[in-house]
Each structure stands twice: as C-alpha cells, then as structure tokens.
Amino acid sequence: MATDLDRLTQSLARNLKRWRGERHLTLDALAARSGVSRGMIIQIEQARTNPSVGTTVKLADALGVSITTLLDQEQSTRVQLVPKEQTVRMWSTEAGSRTTLLVGAQGPGPVELWDWRIAPGDVSASDPHPAGTLELLTVTAGELSLVVDGEEFTVPAGASATFEANVPHTYRNDGEQAVEMTMAVVVPPAH
C-alpha cells in the first residue's frame, strides 16, 4: 500500500518531468536556472528521493509553477476542492512548527495559500524567490518576527504584512506562544 509520501514522491516525479518538457528545458538548463544539481533533478524525476522544501521551491520557481502544481495529482475540473487530509505538510520540527500547503493555482503565474505554525524559539529561513514574487501574510495567534533582507519587523496577532520576496527572508518566533499565520505566495509567470 502506497503511503502519502510515496504518492507525493510519484506526483513530484511525474509533474517535474512534464513541466520541464513543456518548458523545453534540458536537465542542465533546469539545474542552471534553479540552482539544484542535475543529479538531484534526475533522482527526483525517477522518484528515488524526496527533496527538501527548499529544493522543491527552487524547482517550482525555475519552472514558473506553484509548488501545488508540482505536487498535485491531475486537476481537470473548474473548481478544485482540497480536503484537509489532502493538504501537503512541507516542513515540520520536533517543537511542533509546521507549514502546510493548503491549495494552489496556476493563473498567469503560480499562487499558493499556506497555513503556518511556528513554535516558540523556532525559525524558518527562505532563499530569495524570483523577482516579482510577493508574499502576503496575516498572523492569527502569537507575534511573528519577520526579517526581510536583514530588516526585522514585528507582526502581532491581527496584523498583516506583504513584501517582495526576491530577497532572503526569515520567519521567527521569539515569543512564548505559538505563531499561527496564513500566507499567500504570488509568483510571476515564467518567461
């Protein structure tokens, strides 16, 4: 019986091959564009590895698609309902922090909706995304320390923030209560 991770690995392998082909990218071209090694891309396309969130994000960004598009099973209806049990846990820590990709769409450019929980003391750092990428977030519990290109911002519960995510950025919880937030990521279309 296939596990959720097995199905996820298979979907990623199939969809990465498909989108690389549709973009007419060789393995070397995708490696250069994404910063992910050719060998790693081969392993992913052959479903021999389950890459990190960072690697998956780099590949999605390089292809100009959402992470959801890379991970999802085939979509063929106008409305896509995603039951809670089909959301994708992308990152977690022993302290209880986690990110869950709730849903995504492929419009002019990828759009993703995320659910985050960051335990006290935990940190999640992100590499820069392609130019034009926007992140929008709203904090529903706790107080988020948001660091964008070295500048720190405090985002308390009930507040929201948006920023261009083409620079290094970090989500950190310096408080004693878990930070809970919802985030949308809007990526410009690939050229």
Layout of helices and strands:
Layout: H1 4-22, H2 27-34, H3 38-45, H4 53-63, H5 67-71, E1 88-92, E2 98-106, E3 110-118, E4 123-126, E5 134-141, E6 143-148, E7 151-156, E8 160-164, E9 169-172, E10 179-186
Antiparallel strand pairs: 1-2, 2-3, 3-10, 4-9, 5-8, 5-10, 6-7, 6-9
Task: Specify Rg, calculated over alpha carbons.
Answer: 17 Å
H/E element order? HHHHHEEEEEEEEEE
Helical content, roughly?
25-40%
Broad structural category: alpha+beta
Spans of at least 5 consecutive residues with low confidence = none
Number of helices in the DSSP assignment: 5
Let me know the number of strands.
10
Shape: globular
Beta percentage is 25-35%
The N- and C-terminal alpha carbons lie at a distance of: 40 Å
What does this structure look like?
With 191 residues, the protein is α+β, with helices and mostly antiparallel strands. It has 5 helices and 10 strands. The strands form 2 sheets. Strands 1-2-3-10-5-8 form a 6-stranded antiparallel beta sheet. Strands 4-9-6-7 form a 4-stranded antiparallel beta sheet, with no helix packed on it. A hairpin with a 5-residue loop joins strand 1 (88-92) and strand 2. The longest helix has 19 residues, at 4-22. The chain is globular, with a radius of gyration of 17 Å.
